[in-house]
Amino acid sequence: MKKLDLYIIKRFLGTFFFMLAVIMSIAIVFDVSEKLEKFIKSSAPFNEVVLDYYVNFVFFYGNLFSSLLIFLSVLLFTSQLAQRTEIVAILASGVSFNRLLLPYFIGATILVAGSLYFTHYQLPRANATRLEFENEYLKKQYRIKDNNLHRQYEQGSIAYFKSFSTVNNIGYKFSLENWDEEGELTYKLMAERARYDSVTTRWKLENYYERFITEDGERIARGKSKDTLIGLAPSDFGQRLNIASTMVYDELNNFIESERKKGSDKTVHYEIEKHQRTSFPFATYILTIIGVSIASRKSRGGIGANLALGVLVAVTYIFAMKVTTVAATNAGLNPLLAVWLPNIFYFFVAIYFYFNAQK
């Protein structure tokens, strides 16, 4: 590898990690100022605040914004090279623009490979620790706001609650139906209330009504109270959406399949989380091409002009990601397509900037 390649790679990675350290330091300062009162009121231990929360806070947000920080890093140090006429000298010496891009792609590949592994396997464990801390010391208890909750917990077994309170684990207007393979109803259970006992994992039904349907006829049973074991837990009816961020790749796939079988309407959110773990790192290549193509031209406005154009590209990219994910969650757009559409669109933007770059 030539000295020029090593020089660019070192500048690339050095600028990225410097910007990451600066941005994360600023983020921690703002977060501490916002949450300090909560830390004190909740009596959160100092070592847990530092190790369980802020270390994993840096991992999460650093990885989340890594593609955009890489983009800004490329813009910054390449603009510096251009303003010092180093890019002009490199191109004038016979080095093609494509050859100039090689060390950028090597640096980007190092960061993409690290990000892919970290996002799929290491970050979920860090998120689990961070979210456990938040749930214990910072956040209020999760509440299920949706009504008319349906879940299929076994093949042919469907449970229903009109509403469910996670404060006391009580569901209201409960019903349970069992259907055979031919689509015939074989059993129905209804109750005014159903309380979940987390110790015994059993449900206590109040004012219940049972209907047994067999080949010999029907049998009805009623009562004021009954304990029963059902393959359901309160978490099956609702939990924080960020639970998916605590699962490694295989766990997340199994979780999505399980939620799909239950008929959960939150499955699309989990699929977006799954696909973003790959699409975000690969955006690094696209943003690197755009960054080099913009910053390699010496501008009369100096570095500021290149950074302004780069920030505009970054803002529109973030906006595009938000639009497509909202379309997936609210308009039925395929989650895989939703998270890759911004990359596809900006790939063509990268081609435009590439062909108009200084060569």
Number of strands: 7
- Largest beta-sheet details: 7 strands, antiparallel
Shape: elongated
Which band does the percent of strand residues land in?
15-25%
Q: Main traits of this protein?
A:
359 residues; alpha+beta; 2 domains; seven-stranded antiparallel β-sheet; 9 helices; 7 strands; 60% helix; elongated
Task: Describe it.
This protein is α+β, with helices and mostly antiparallel strands and 359 residues long. The chain has 2 domains: 3-139 and 266-355, no CATH class; 149-235, no CATH class. The protein has 9 helices and 7 strands. Strands 1, 2, 3, 4, 5, 6 and 7 form a 7-stranded antiparallel sheet that branches. β5 and β6 (202-214) form a beta hairpin. α8 packs antiparallel against α9 (335-355). The longest helix has 41 residues, at 97-137.
Question: How do the helices and strands line up, and which of them pair or pack?
Answer:
Layout: H1 3-41, H2 46-64, H3 66-83, H4 86-92, H5 97-137, E1 149-154, E2 157-161, E3 163-165, E4 170-179, E5 185-197, E6 202-214, E7 217-228, H6 249-262, H7 267-295, H8 303-331, H9 335-355
Antiparallel strand pairs: 1-2, 2-4, 3-4, 4-5, 5-6, 6-7
Helix pairs in contact: 1-2, 1-3, 1-5, 2-5, 3-7, 3-8, 5-7, 6-7, 7-8, 7-9, 8-9
